[in-house]
Amino acid sequence: MKKIVLLLFLIPNICFAQRERTIDSLIDQAKKSFFSDYNKTIALSSRAIKLSRISKNFAKEATAYNIKGLGHQFKGELDSALASLQRAQVLAAKVNDPLLSGKISGSLGSTFFRLGKYDKSLYYGFEGLKFMEKARDTSGIARLMADIANSFIMQKLYNKAIEYLMRAIVLAQKLMKMPRRAIFITLWA
Length: 189
Description:
Elements: H1 2-32, H2 38-55, H3 58-75, H4 78-95, H5 98-115, H6 118-135, H7 138-154, H8 158-177, H9 180-188
Helix pairs in contact: 1-2, 1-3, 2-3, 3-4, 3-5, 4-5, 5-6, 5-7, 6-7, 7-8
């Protein structure tokens, strides 16, 4: 009788752990296929979203929505990209993870940039910058400063663009002075 009770207790935990590993694998595969096959990226991230929803893992679901949104963005499906990224933003707010929120805000900013909506691009760029500073992610800060500068250029605000580009360059130079292993960890963590 004790063995049956123990089995009934362990089976759901084993299933949960397997599902989490599968979600991680799908997200990794989606990231790896990103630059070679957008359709595959979108399909893999959609499967990760479904499994994350079952697990009620908002952080992984938000990450998968972000990847899916970027896949749509680079495929040229900007309305679908916005829908996925806005869903990711809602989920990230539930998790309260500044790094995740910063990445998603940056993705939203780049999507609005591609739509030619530079005011919204700036809004999300600055929002992402705030999150990245809170997370202390130097490479994310540098990337968002460059994105902000690009939006200022499109609005013909060249002095502001130069200011943010210079700040991005200074941060990039600091990253370059770090040991190679530290750069790799910073960029991929």
